[in-house]
Write a structure and sequence with these properties.
Layout (H helix, E strand, L loop, with lengths): L24 H21 L5 H21 L3 H24 L5
Helix pairs in contact: 1-2, 1-3, 2-3
Length: 103
């Protein structure tokens, strides 16, 4: 009797920053920018020769992440902002430790 139940459909969860159902294009762009700069800063901060890129990416990502946190509208945005801020901070710290902003 499996034919009586109908087809089995699995719902996959949607990944979205708009958990409140409204669009937030500026907030989402700021959040993703802060996260991207944080990833670049941390990745470059782990490479000694890339200290300039790590320093600048982290120095830009940190205040952008703080502003994104200030204007954020949903919990998902706030969570990603914190990750981006921390990655930017660690990346800029490693970049400064390895040589700073100037080659």
């Amino acid at each position: 009797m499996p034919h009586t139940l109908g087809p089995l459909r699995l719902k996959t969860p949607r990944l979205t920053l708009n958990s409140d159902g409204q669009r937030h294009p500026l907030e989402n762009a700021l959040t993703l920018t802060a996260l991207g700069l944080g990833v670049v800063a941390l990745a470059c901060g782990l490479i000694v020769q890339a200290h300039v890129a790590a320093s600048w990416a982290g120095a830009l990502g940190f205040p952008i992440g703080l502003y994104a946190q200030y204007v954020s509208a949903t919990t998902a945005e706030r969570s990603i902002n914190i990750v981006g801020i921390i990655m930017s901070f660690v990346g800029v710290a490693l970049g400064i430790f390895h040589g700073g902003f100037i080659p």
